[in-house]
Amino acid sequence: MPDAEGVQKGEPKILRWDGPVPLPPVPDTNYASFLLNIMLQHGEKLALVDARTGKYHTYGDIYRAVPRIKAGLAAAGVSQGDALLLMSSNHIDFPLVLLATVLAGAICVPVSPTLKPDELALLARASGARWAVAHESLAPVMQEAFGQLPPGTLRQLWVLGSAPRLPSLANLMRSGPSPDGHAQEMIDSRTTVALMMFSSGTTGPPKGVMLSHRNLLTSLLQNKYLKSLSPPGTPNVLESTLLVIPVFHTYGYIILVNTILMGGKAVMMARFSPERYFEAIQTHKVTFSPIVPHIAMYLAKTPLMSKYDTSSLLAFASGTSPLAPSTHVELMQKTGKGAGIGYGMTEACATIASNGGSLGFQLGSVGKLLPYYEGKVVDVETGQILGEGQEGEVCVRGPSIMLGYMGNPKATAEVLDAEGWLHTGDLGFFDQDNFIFLTDRIKDLMKVKGYQVAPSEIEKIVREVEGVADVTVVGVPDDRLGEAPRAWVVPAPGASLDPAHIQQHVAGVSL
Fold first, then answer.
1. Closest CA to 394 of 380, 413, 410, 414
2. Confidence (pTM)
């Protein structure tokens, strides 16, 4: 950021991966076929386990089942380019459906199991989906959603489990594999959409992010390449991964795929429950636990952890939103485990930068740019490329960047420029070691007396007040100031806060 005199420092710079060996080229192939061939190398090792029931699939099970599901989809009429909605909490059959759909050259559209029928109907319409798979408990929601669309929109709904008068995944598999069940459909990996995941983008309502086979393959190779740089004998952190973060979300899905890549076991948990979380770590000898900030805050303070054997755990990772440095430190001190940070976007096919591991660590940073990416920070007003320590919008480019938003060229043009740069909408800067630090969201900036004010700066100051557990600051219209900051403060348990004291504290600090 600018120094105390406001003097800018650092020459304009493009950040690029600078690894010890060249990056392998991204193959032109079907993503699901590529992933299945990796699974074949893992034999009959455990791949997917349900944390609650103990049901499981081995890698061999998945390798044999996916072509059969693909054949069942084809027999039902699912064709290349068709979209299939997949609605479920974390379930061991979720990856099977996704891979079978993609292997067939169709588009898998994972959606949140918490959606209401009217919300789901909007996503079904936006994606153009004609087919659907839902967990047995969510079949009524799916039916009600498609009931809001023109008759005949939904060609068929299958369920994970069983539901009255609805075919199941088992019905799909009864068709048996076609003679070329593992064969990939002829596709152009650069332009063929494999997954469509919904994101609000840099702002606004959810949009269908079109991710190509090449986008997904790049993300896969990214992690395979990083693993190849590890010294011999380095423990496999992903040997047993506890997935309590949702795999319909890019963060959870990419962690799942990375676990598969490493031949690890993915322990699927439908929702976070403290006791079941620790029981799963103890029972399944979990080595890696990706989490989100609110779970990190809980783990940093709960006494429950001491009641379970968590000695197998090697590391945590946190993503989706910023993790306060104080919570980050507290989590590592409390557990004695490493805790990496990831920064990503659905539009970039997940992780853009990583803080921890072989890339090094800087507290408060989101890390260094991952392989296959270029990055830059640009002036918000002029678009000029900035240098070290200068705050601006973070932009990234590379073969994992989305094709665009489905049916929304205007929104696509707002975030993807003519040179292929994805404008993230995040404000930040990089230091002399190329660690990236995020400071705010562009859309969150307030104009107070004509000056740009970042809510995160005020939030940081308010959190210094004793008794404040959390705070959110937004700009509200003000006749005198243009915009004025308004804070919603959450007191810590048992704390009594005086608004006047908080205001005096903020007023006494120079922003």
1. 380
2. 0.85
The C-alpha atoms of residue 184 and residue 194 are separated, in whole angstroms, by 12
In the chain, the domains with their CATH numbers are 15-25+213-442 (3.40.50.12780), 31-43+56-187 (3.40.50.980), 446-507 (3.30.300.30)
Nearest to 337 by CA among 242, 433, 232: 242
* Cβ–Cβ under 8 Å, residues 435 and 343: no
Q: Rounded CA gap, 447 and 415, in Å? A: 23
How deeply is 76 buried, as exposed, middle or buried, from its count of CB atoms within 10 A (0-12, 13-18, 19+)? middle
Give the DSSP letter string of 299-337: HHH-SGGGGS--TT--EEEE-SS---HHHHHHHHHHH--
- Tell me the C-alpha distance between 181 and 70, whole Å: 7
pLDDT of residue 370: 94
Q: Could you report the per-residue pLDDT of 130-157, keeping only the tens digit for each?
A: 999 999 999 999 999 999 999 999 999 9
For the chain, give the mean pLDDT: 90
The candidate with the shortest Cα–Cα distance to 331, out of 345, 352, 320, 317, is 317
Q: Which of 509, 507, 355 is nearest to 438 (CA)?
A: 355
Q: Which of 183, 182, 159, 155 is nearest to 171 (CA)?
A: 159
Nearest residue to 268 via CA among 249, 237, 240, 299 = 240
Nearest alpha carbon to residue 122 among 407, 375, 390, 446: 407
Predicted confidence (pLDDT) per residue in 255-301, tens digit: 999 999 999 999 999 999 999 999 999 999 999 999 998 899 999 98
At 357 the pLDDT is: 81
Q: What does each C-alpha distance from 28 to 25, 111, 190 come to in angstroms?
A: 9, 27, 8
Report the C-alpha gap between 67 and 173 in whole angstroms: 9
Residue type, 219: S
* Residue 502 predicted with pLDDT over 70: yes
What are the CA-CA distances from residue 133 to residues 130, 166, 203, 425, 506 (Å)? 11, 10, 29, 34, 51
